Structure formats: C-alpha cells, structure tokens
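[09:14] KT: can someone run the structure on this one? pasting the chain below
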Amino acid sequence: MKGGHDLGGRQGLGPISPEPEAEEPVFHADWERRVFAMTLATGMLGQWNIDESRFARESQHPADYLRNSYYENWLAGIQNLLVKKGLLTEGELASACMIKGGAGELRVPNSEEAIKILGTGGPTLMPSDGAPEFNVGDAVRAKKIHTRGHSRLPTYAQGSVGEIEENYGCHVYPDKNSAGEHIGEFLYRVRFSSASLWGSRDDNSEVLIDLWQPYLESVE
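[09:31] RB: done, structure tokens below
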C-alpha cells in the first residue's frame, strides 16, 4: 500500500487514488498483519510513547520514507526504536535475534493486561496553570513551522486562516512528547474553509483540524 503517507495530491507525488472502503482489506498482505502486531507488542514494553513511535518512522532518510509502503515505514520505526533504546544491537537486528531485554526493566504484560492496555490507551488530558490564549470564534492562522522534530501540524494547513470552534482543554503536546518531555498545551478544533487552504472558491467545503496552541497565532 503506497497511499498511507497522506502525500497523494501534493506536487510531484501523483494523484490520490483511494480504494473504496467497503472493498479495501484491513491488511493487504500477511506480513502487514505481523508488523502491526509487533508495533503493538513492542509498544507495551513501556520504552517509548506513541509520539516517539511516529517520529521514529519519520526519522528515516526522506527517500526511504517516500519509497516505503505504509507498513514498511512502521517496520522501519520499530527497528529504529529497538536499537535506540538498547533492546537490540544493529548486529542482532540484522541476524533476526530475539529481544533479550538489554534496556533494563521491561513492562511485559500478560494477555489480560494487554487487552486492558489496548482498550484504554493512555490519558492525554493534563492540568494547566495558565489560561488558553484563544477563545471560540477567534480567527487564527496556522504558523509556518520548519522543524527537524515531530509535529502534528499538517503542511497543507500552514499559513492558512481558520476559526476556533472548540477548546478541548490542555493535552499532551506531541512535539515535546516525542522527545521524552511530557508537557501539556491547549488543544483546539479549528475550522478552515477550502478557500483558505487551497484557494478553491467553487465550493463551500470545510476542514476541521485539531491543533495545539503553539501551532497558532492570532489574526488581527
């Protein structure tokens, strides 16, 4: 599957060609099922968080990231983290050795605990001592952010003006969480018109995007 990067339709990357949802299988090959299972299983070891996992996939050479299919990037991310966290050496990875637990104390849940973890996930809501910078109805612009780190701000929205539709409260900030810094920022639902995003004025469609406060600036 090559359409998993959300890059189709961008300049030089070809058109979007989605499969009808009713016809698309959950996995296109058995190895994808195994990579998905390994991602969940290794994540339960407690050595990294979901944002670190996403950033590990993004940390490949750009040519590799674009060439790989969706689950090939997931596999690359797992391999990256297993070596980075000391669970495997490069040599062990190349020879397909099993994890030996080199990173010290590991959380290894049994089947009952694993089901509970999958069913509940991790909380993202955090307390905040400050007040939100924006209110419902405020006009905001998505900043143009150039970073070597992880970000959940879509490139296509950067520079576009939208309107705050809801304040979700203070939640784990993924940009810092991916680097192991567990802090919170206010999270908003922002409504963007197609005209603001793509300059399209022949329809009245809108896109709702959840964005953290550091991604936004006021529009006077």
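[09:33] KT: thanks! Confidence is low (pLDDT under 50) at residues 1-5.
[09:34] RB: yep, looked fine to me
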